Amino acid sequence: MATGLSFEQAPPLSVPYRFFLAAPCFGVLAGLLLAWSGGDALASRWTAQALALTHLIALGFMLQAMCGALLQFIPVAVGGNVWRPRLVAWVVQPLLLVGTLLLVAGWLGAGGTAFAVAVPIFLMAIGVLAVAAGFALWQTPATGMTLWTMRLAISGLVATVLLGSLLAEALARGLVVPFLLLTDIHLAWGLCGWALMLLAAVSYHVVPMFQLTKPYPLWFTRAFGPLLLTLLLAWSAQLLIDAAAWPLSVALALLAVGSVYAVLTLWLQHTRLRKTVDATSLYFRVAMLSLLAFVVSGVAVLMLPALAGDPRAAVWLGVLALVGVFVSAITGMMYKILPFLNWLHLQRLGAPMSAVPNMKKMIPAAAMMGQFRLHVAALALLLLATLQPLLARPAGIAVAASFAWLGWNVLGAARRYRAFKAGMVAAL
Ligand code: HEM
Description:
Blueprint: H1 14-37, H2 48-78, H3 85-110, H4 112-139, H5 145-173, H6 179-211, H7 218-236, H8 246-270, H9 279-303, H10 305-308, H11 311-347, H12 365-387, H13 392-427
Helix pairs in contact: 1-2, 1-3, 1-13, 2-3, 2-4, 2-6, 2-11, 3-4, 4-5, 5-6, 5-7, 6-7, 6-8, 6-11, 7-8, 8-9, 9-11, 9-12, 11-12, 11-13, 12-13
This protein binds protoporphyrin IX containing FE.
Protoporphyrin IX containing FE is lined by residues 45, 50-51, 54-55, 58-59, 63, 103, 118-119, 122, 160-161, 164-165, 167-168, 171, 183, 186-187, 190-191, 194-195, 318.
């Protein structure tokens, strides 16, 4: 394993695991909701089911998994000291869980009260997380672009949740706000300012380390975060200034920045010396190809009025971004992070290194590859279902099955850790 990691401050194993175990459950719920709703759910981005599905993935799967990774990554990779990580996880994780279920219930019929209750819950959860993570990221003596880009990602999360809360309050209390524009700004912060920003920050560190590539070029890591932030601020300025051509230029620039990250990551994978093919590298390839497909589709939607007027175009883009890019990249990361964490905590038990089981024993390679293939099939079915509504139910079943398999693999990793630990402690 490459260096650049500081293991002393690693949080207890229960911290990342509680997020990683919860995340796939929300993916299963999303698949079941789609299977139950059928093709109508994907008729446009504004159907209640599409909004519920979006947040089951964005908050239920992505945010849970990203919080788990963040609380682990900050101390180990950038040397930040997260204050009382077990307490932070104990507070944040259930709040996120309940908040997400309430929000989803709001769209599925529970109405304004559910939105109104969800808002303070999210504000509390993200407030605690942002203070704990922000303080650790601010105090660490480390330097470098991973750190800066992570700081920007935390700010992006705060902006997303504040905007989402305003929208939810508007739905709950009938506030008069520019709803469509605010939704577009909220989603840009959520997908680019938080999710893509964090993915890039983590990639700078883990792509070279886990996939044995060259590092990302310095010009890219220096420019990516600040450029993304500038473009998001320009995108948000639509609220204040009315300039006709500007949003189009900003959207095209955002797509261009995303495509550079994708091409560069694929190039690094292509030029690495040891071309080991495992679930993580395949998952990352799918994520980056999905990002490129998103860019091409996004440019087409922006340039061709006929496509822009088709309500299914936005759903196609949503599937590519959420399931194609983020679910793929996050799952790929989980398949490296979990075996590594198991190994890390086992080797701290004090037994000779030869007694610590190899990382490859934590999750069987065949189980990860099988789950990867099912995920790709589910993604393909989802994309086809945006064009052919009859495929929505099979797509939902495939999504639920693929997340259930992921959950099973995560649970297996936890059980194997316990078994290995018991064996090693007995032998000490
Ligand atoms: C942190 C990650 C989040 C991401 C990535 C995210 C993403 C999105 C996306 C992509 C949309 C547009 C959906 C569409 O056009 O179909 C949206 C809309 C919305 N989001 Fe979020 N969101 C996040 C968090 C939140 C939170 C925490 C709340 C509430 C507290 C929230 C409330 C809303 C509301 C009310 C809408 C408008 C829905 C409507 O028109 O009924 N979001 N979000």
